[in-house]
């Protein structure tokens, strides 16, 4: 079916090309349109991380690009994956099969992203994962058909753990979400802490999800560790931080290290609960003039400051469109190669480069959450402490289990 | 240091205290379910959503109307309870004559609507409700640092439980209620306005959930999904205790809180599941529940 | 009443009447079989008209809802935990097929279904100790327990889910990566499941089930071990739900926590209720509508409102549309054509 449809479209396009002498570039576009599918959680847990704001960022990129590429208009389709891998996979399968969607963007929940990249690989499409945390997406689950853009757990855990130990936080108590994701995060942190001369003095594996963290915080307080590391995500991290603040954890001399916490979480929690928290981020809206300029435009449209994921969606869409323009085709393989060719330096990424495993590496930043006294406004939340160079931040290719990497 | 099963006594005591705080929520919510079940014979699946509405009403009241915590504690249960009465009067009553499973399904649908709507307006990250000024800080109990607010939650929830028990077991209105539970047709024959009694009862049960929601607001992030997962645990608590008695619901709620709290020390991996395991045990040994009456 | 009337008739009158009744029943049966045949033809042609992957999803959920309906519609038991069986079937099949490349898909599906059946026995033994509303709560709580187990168990991949399940080759020689081949395999499984349900409902066992649903004390007094009957219904329902889950995993090549979540248990209730509880075609219709609705709404501006809309359908169904679409159609048909 798909084959027939594609051949049919091609032959029609060829006929059109010969009859009306359309420009050569246009004939190389799969149909006379570039279609981008935005798939994300629009209503659930990750809504505020990417969600409708991410779609807006994508549309901004398309408008800024001029609305068409190589003479072909750019169309956006969007869908809510409701954090369900099979909803996500089905939507994408239909998009590629029936709607000739050329690129899938957004992609937040790791389960959805992994499922989607499998579908994209099977159907020879292209996906840019912007919102997911799992570093496995470009490790054991890597494919030649997708790119992982904004961040993953590796720089988040490593950057934060290393910096904290260097600042003297050498005894750690780990609060780990008891499932594959938490275990992986805990493993990464343990390795970095021990390599840098620190020590893990205790670990609690709590079920996912957990609503009440008071018991665990009490045990963390009793452990005497200097740092309480949160190897969990989303609502668990938020609940743990809230409870820690209620129990005066930081007042009694301990410090929290958030391994997977985002701007929207800090905003929701408030500075009272999160002050002094150390974290690693891929981007911060107020980090320099370029970032601020773009964020102001985003703010005018959305009414909130962008997260790094939303900014990354703009940047990746722009990078994709430029590659389509330069390559003169929307053929996934060619575009993917073109994207990897070109380094990325824009308001979002510094020293950005797409590696052969599909990982987009770029400079990451160690940040500390401001105290309520330091903050000057609702969104004045982070202070950037240092830059972690792209090469150091991400998992080195020498440790990669990806089939595309020759070791 | 005195040790209990390999855990210092202080930690042990601390965990029991924290377990009691959680248990107080289980008690309040299962109490509300039991009150509603008594007269309407339905399981109120919207109970979690109504608990969540309580927390949200407190939050929005503070943000937009400047209603402080104490006023919220009084007003929110009334408002949400009134909303519950409207639901009973115009929706639940229409299916009261049918199999009670329809009531369960109807309230399930209502829960979906309430949660989904709030998700669209407020997202799911959850917002913070500030701890009231008087409850800032904590108490040094010798064996632990207990945030004052948690101590207050325990006191307030227990007081509300006792108040409910008193209302139902010791007042005239409560007597009607108990009689209605036994035989509502006879009550009607004696000239008691049973439909009104049912509406009031449902409203009261909902108000209890909203009260628990206001109490929870400063403890947990206020989010549209805060009620649904809690509700399933409360269902297990209800199955364990049986819905036969008011005191039974309170005692079961508190003791499940303690069991859960201790699991968090000895085997934290199972702390989400322990209550369900207790439920299985009870089903095997005493299928009607600890306080349930033999059918 | 009918019996006493026929007793007062003369034998010949009674005979002609009986034969008329038999004739009518025979015709009804032919009509029914023709109708089923027409549906099978529609099913066979469908993948050439509609998108096969979408159809397969509908078929999996139609089987799931039919399995659920066997319990609610014919045994009167409302389970709020059927997601557990769907997920168990899916995870076991997915894990086996992904870890043992030599395994053919049909064996993987059988294994998944068997494990789901075992889980069904455990659920059944525990939950039929309580009735009505308690039964719903017990099944919900047990399913939640299963959900937590699947989050923590290493083989499920936790929140990331289980990915890369190969479709493989059916019986070792039919390549299922072909959408059409896959579709007809799913369709065959669906027909099998539907036939099992149809046979069960119309069997003597099914009649006893209905008697228990209508009046349990009466059935007990007639000497039926009602708990045993209910348990059998529960286990059968769980097995078929597991079959649906196993098949679904092979189709989509993944298993995820969505299938184990209590929302899924709610969705299957909605499918059944919307289509018509206690009708054979109702759950299928309901599944088709709910799956299409989610599909269409998910890509429209109303995408964020899916769960609200499902909730509204729930409320409307319960308030004023309790016999569901098929139930209402049957009523209209009986009124106008009989």
UniProtKB/TrEMBL annotation, chain A:
Signal peptide from the UniProt entry: 1-27
Domain of life: Bacteria
Record flagged with keyword Signal: yes
Family per similarity comment: Belongs to the leucine-binding protein family.
Stretches of the chain forming a coiled coil according to its record: none
This protein's UniProt keywords: Signal
Pfam family, one: Peripla_BP_6
Organism: Vreelandella salicampi
Domain Leucine-binding protein residue range list: 33-370
InterPro entries given in the database record: BCAA_transport, Leu-bd, Peripla_BP_I
This protein's name: ABC transporter substrate-binding protein
UniProtKB/TrEMBL annotation, chain B:
Membrane disposition: Multi-pass membrane protein
Presence of the UniProt keyword Transmembrane helix in the record: yes
Domain of life (superkingdom): Bacteria
Transmembrane segments: 12-39, 73-92, 104-129, 149-168, 189-217, 229-254, 266-285
Keyword check for Transport: yes
One Gene Ontology term, aspect cellular component: plasma membrane
A GO biological process held by the record: amino acid transport
Record keywords, A-Z: Amino-acid transport, Cell membrane, Membrane, Transmembrane, Transmembrane helix, Transport
InterPro entries referenced in this protein's UniProt entry, alphabetically: ABC_transp_permease (IPR001851), BCAA_transport_permease (IPR052157)
Protein name (database record): Branched-chain amino acid ABC transporter permease
TrEMBL record, chain C:
Keywords for the protein's UniProt record, in alphabetical order: Cell membrane, Membrane, Transmembrane, Transmembrane helix
Example of a GO MF term: branched-chain amino acid transmembrane transporter activity
Superkingdom as given in the UniProt entry: Bacteria
Xref: Pfam families: BPD_transp_2
Localization of this protein: Cell inner membrane
Residues spanning the membrane: 34-50, 56-77, 84-101, 107-126, 133-153, 173-197, 268-293, 305-325
Membrane topology: Multi-pass membrane protein
InterPro entries associated with the record: ABC_transp_permease, LivM-like
GO cellular component, one term: plasma membrane
Annotated protein name in UniProt: Branched-chain amino acid ABC transporter permease
Lineage, opening ranks: Bacteria, Pseudomonadati, Pseudomonadota, Gammaproteobacteria, Oceanospirillales
């Amino acid at each position: 079916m798909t084959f027939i449809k594609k051949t049919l479209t091609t032959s029609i396009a060829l006929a059109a090309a010969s009859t009306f002498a359309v420009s050569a570039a246009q004939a190389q576009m799969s149909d006379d349109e570039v279609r981008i599918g935005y798939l994300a959680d629009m209503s659930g847990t990750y809504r505020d991380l990417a969600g409708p704001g991410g779609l807006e960022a994508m549309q901004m990129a398309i408008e800024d690009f001029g609305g068409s590429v190589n003479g072909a208009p750019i169309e956006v389709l969007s869908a809510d994956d409701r954090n369900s891998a099979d909803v996500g996979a089905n939507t994408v399968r239909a998009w590629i099969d029936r709607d000739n969607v050329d690129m899938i963007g957004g992609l937040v929940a790791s389960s959805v992203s992994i499922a989607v990249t499998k579908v994209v690989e099977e159907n020879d499409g292209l996906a840019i994962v912007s919102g997911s945390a799992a570093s496995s997406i470009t490790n054991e689950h890597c494919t030649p058909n997708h790119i992982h853009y904004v961040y993953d757990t590796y720089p988040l855990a490593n950057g934060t753990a290393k910096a904290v130990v260097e600042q003297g936080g050498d005894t750690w108590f780990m609060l780990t979400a008891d499932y594959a994701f938490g275990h992986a995060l805990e493993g990464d942190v343990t390795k970095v802490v021990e390599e840098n001369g620190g020590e893990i003095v205790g670990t609690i594996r709590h079920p996912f999800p957990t609503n009440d963290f008071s018991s665990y915080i009490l045990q963390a307080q009793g452990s005497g560790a200097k740092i309480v590391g949160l190897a969990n995500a989303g609502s668990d991290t938020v609940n743990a931080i809230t409870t820690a603040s209620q129990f005066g954890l930081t007042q009694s001399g301990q410090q929290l290290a958030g391994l997977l916490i985002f701007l929207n979480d800090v905003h929701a929690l408030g500075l009272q609960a999160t002050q002094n928290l150390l974290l690693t981020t891929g981007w911060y809206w107020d980090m320099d003039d370029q970032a601020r300029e773009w964020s102001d435009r985003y703010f005018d449209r959305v009414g909130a400051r962008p997260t790094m994921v939303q900014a990354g969606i703009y940047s990746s869409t722009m990078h994709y469109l430029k590659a389509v323009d330069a390559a003169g085709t929307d053929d996934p393989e060619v575009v993917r190669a073109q994207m990897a060719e070109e380094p990325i330096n824009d308001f979002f990424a510094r020293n950005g480069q797409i590696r052969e495993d599909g990982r987009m590496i770029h400079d990451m930043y160690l940040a500390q959450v401001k105290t309520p006294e330091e903050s000057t406004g609702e969104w004045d939340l982070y202070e950037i402490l240092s830059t972690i160079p792209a090469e150091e931040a991400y998992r080195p290719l020498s440790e990669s289990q990806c089939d595309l990497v020759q070791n | 240091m005195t040790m209990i099963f390999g855990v210092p006594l202080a930690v042990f005591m601390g965990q029991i205290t924290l377990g009691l705080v959680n248990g107080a929520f289980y008690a309040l919510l299962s109490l509300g379910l039991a009150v509603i079940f008594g007269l309407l014979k339905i399981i109120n699946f919207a109970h979690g959503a109504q608990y969540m509405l309580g927390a949200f009403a407190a939050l929005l009241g503070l943000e937009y109307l400047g209603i402080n915590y104490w006023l919220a504690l009084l007003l929110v249960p009334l408002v949400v309870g009134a909303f519950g009465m409207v639901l009973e009067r115009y929706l639940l009553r229409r299916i009261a004559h049918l199999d009670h499973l329809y009531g369960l399904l109807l309230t399930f649908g209502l829960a979906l609507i309430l949660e989904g709507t709030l998700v669209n307006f407020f997202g799911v990250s959850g917002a913070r409700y500030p701890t009231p000024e008087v409850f800032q800080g904590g108490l040094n109990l010798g064996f632990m640092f207990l945030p004052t607010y948690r101590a207050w939650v325990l006191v307030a929830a227990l007081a509300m439980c006792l108040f409910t028990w008193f209302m139902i077991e010791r007042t005239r209105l409560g007597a009607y209620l108990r009689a209605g539970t036994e035989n509502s047709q006879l009550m009607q024959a004696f000239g008691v306005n049973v439909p009104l009694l049912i509406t009031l009862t449902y409203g009261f049960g909902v108000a209890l959930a909203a009260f628990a929601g206001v109490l929870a607001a400063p403890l947990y992030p206020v989010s549209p999904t805060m009620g649904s997962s809690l509700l399933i645990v409360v269902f297990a608590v209800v199955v364990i205790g049986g819905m036969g008695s008011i005191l039974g619901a309170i005692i079961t709620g508190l003791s499940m809180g303690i069991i859960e709290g201790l699991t968090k020390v000895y085997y934290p991996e199972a702390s989400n599941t322990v209550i369900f395991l207790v439920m299985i045990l009870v089903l095997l040994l005493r299928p009607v529940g600890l306080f349930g009456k033999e059918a | 009443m009918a019996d006493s009337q026929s007793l007062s008739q003369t034998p010949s009158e009674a005979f002609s009447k009986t034969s008329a009744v038999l004739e009518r029943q025979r015709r009804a049966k032919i009509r029914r079989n023709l109708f089923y045949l027409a549906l099978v033809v529609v099913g066979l042609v469908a993948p050439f008209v509609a998108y096969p992957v979408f159809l397969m999803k509908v078929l999996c959920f139609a089987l799931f809802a039919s399995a659920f309906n066997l319990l609610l519609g014919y045994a009167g038991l409302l389970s709020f935990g059927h997601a557990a069986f769907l997920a168990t079937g899916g995870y076991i099949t997915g894990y086996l097929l992904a870890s043992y490349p030599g395994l053919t898909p049909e064996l993987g599906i059988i294994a998944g279904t068997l494990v789901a059946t075992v889980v069904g026995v455990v659920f059944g033994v525990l939950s039929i100790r309580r009735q009505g509303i308690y039964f719903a709560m017990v099944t919900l709580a047990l399913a939640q327990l299963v959900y937590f187990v699947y989050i923590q168990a290493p083989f499920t991949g936790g929140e990331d889910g289980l990915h890369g399940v190969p479709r493989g080759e059916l019986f070792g020689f039919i390549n299922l990566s072909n959408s059409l081949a896959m579709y007809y395999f799913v369709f065959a499984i669906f027909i099998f499941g539907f036939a099992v349900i149809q046979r069960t409902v119309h069997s003597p066992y099914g009649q006893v089930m209905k008697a228990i649903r209508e009046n349990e004390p009466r059935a007990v007094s007639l000497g039926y071990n009602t708990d045993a009957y209910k348990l059998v219904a529960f286990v059968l329902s769980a097995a078929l739900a597991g079959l649906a889950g196993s098949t679904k995993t092979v189709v989509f090549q993944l298993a995820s926590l969505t299938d184990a979540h209590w929302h899924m248990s709610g969705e299957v209730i909605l499918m059944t209720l919307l289509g018509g509880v206690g009708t054979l075609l109702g759950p299928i219709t309901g599944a088709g509508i709910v799956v299409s609705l989610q599909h269409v709404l998910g890509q429209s501006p109303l995408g964020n409102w899916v769960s609200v809309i499902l909730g509204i359908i729930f409320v409307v169904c319960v308030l004023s549309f309790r016999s569901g679409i098929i139930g209402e159609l049957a009523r209209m048909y009986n009124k106008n054509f009989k």
